[in-house]
Amino acid sequence: MDAHQLPRELSFTVAGHVAKPVEQVYEAVADPEQLSRYFTTGGARGRLEAGDTVTWDFHDFPGAFPVQVLQAEAPRRIVLRWAGEHLVAKDGMSRVQFDFEPVDDGARTKVQISESGWQPSEAGIQRAFDNCEGWTSMLAALKAWVEHGINLREGFYK
Asked: Most buried residue, 36, 48, 107, 108, by most Cβ within 10 Å?
């Protein structure tokens, strides 16, 4: 792709497998109590339900973030919007989609996380890469938590 064919917005997708059934993996993301144990270091407030706005707080990053829940279709999909920098949308929000797919006759779950909305600029690229790193870390932490009860995130960033 040459410079004259830049995309209108930047996006990425990360994926991984968790050795638990889809319902259990979905719950580990949708349930604020579980999410607070491996991802939101300052806590999650509010269950991920369509139409709600919840709060995710990260002690290892500045502040709490409001998260708008656009879709919550247990146990297959969650779609969110949250604020960021260098985004295309006028309201400064990116779109995050979690897809949960049962594999191996339901013994495991493929989790795919896609985020989109950054400007095709140097600053937009950097922000997209930063969030890609964050969601990849979240997937690893989700796997460790659901499979083994281990919090990988604690002390990881600070």
From this structure: 48
Model confidence over 92-151: pLDDT tens digits? 999 999 999 999 999 999 999 999 999 999 999 999 999 999 999 999 999 999 999 999
Exposure class string for 88-125: b at 16+ Cβ within 10 A, else e:
bbeeebbbbbbbbbbeeeeebbbbebbbbbbbeeeebe
3-state secondary structure the chain: CCHHHCCCCEEEEEEEEECCCHHHHHHHHHCHHHHHHHCCCCEEECCCCCCCEEEEECCCCCCEEEEEEEEEECCCEEEEEEECCCECCCCCEEEEEEEEEEECCCCEEEEEEEEEEECCCHHHHHHHHHHHHHHHHHHHHHHHHHHHCCCCCCCCCC
